[in-house]
Amino acid sequence: MAEEPEKKKEDLAEGTLISHLLELRNRLMRAMIAVIIALIPCIYYQNRLFTFVARPIREKLPKGVSLIATGVMSPFITPLKLAMFVSIFIAMPYILYQVWAFVAPGLYKHEKRFAIPLLASSVVLFYLGVGFAYQIVFPHVFGYFASSTPEGVTWMADITSYLDFAMQMFFAFGLAFEVPIAVVLLVITGIVKLEKLKANRGYVLVGVFVVSAMVTPPDALSQCVMAIPMYLLYEGGLIMAAILYNMRQKELARQEGNGT
Questions:
Q1: CA distances from 110 to 134, 189, 228, 252 (A)
Q2: If 0-12 CB within 10 Å is exposed, 13-18 middle and 19+ buried, where does residue 118 land?
Q3: How many whole angstroms separate alpha carbon 114 and alpha carbon 120?
Q4: pLDDT tens, 224-241?
């Protein structure tokens, strides 16, 4: 008789696990369908998309020089790869929504209230980081490359190498613009105190310049173009964290007061 309750608990846990796995599968399928739907028009316009993404470097190439394709299948594979990246980029809000819908049932009401704006802000900031790289960073970077080319050397770029470089920069700046979200999460989860983050501003400033030196071309101006926005975003994250932390403490105090 004593084994029956234990067996029921095991069956319940197994059923819960299976339901969670089925829910995860459904969410992943929906995310994949969204990517496929976005991919169809991206494939149709893949050459135009590549022309748009390659505009910053084409404007800085020497007169009469164009991008080249050194691989036999590069003219087809490279735009197709870009189309796949763009489809994920377009579908990202829906993908993140599926992630949110999967984890939301396990969150408390006050946690959901803070998670929604953080999720939306993370998407917007990532897009802003990519846009910043395309509009501000790329023209300067490729202008620097063009001006530093030795005499007697014609600067040419392979389309595959350019796309790899562009994707790396987009990803780096997209993540760099997530600094405020990281700061807020560290504070509201209690991992790091807000006062400690404020006291370590000097270390953070050094750290962002080190990171910038690793992902940007080796000149001081390029490093500053990335490091200065990152540090300003860090300061913005401190302000956001202070506001959300105070709001959370008031909400918890109100709930404890209602409970008593």
A1: 37, 13, 34, 8
A2: middle
A3: 10
A4: 878 888 888 888 888 888
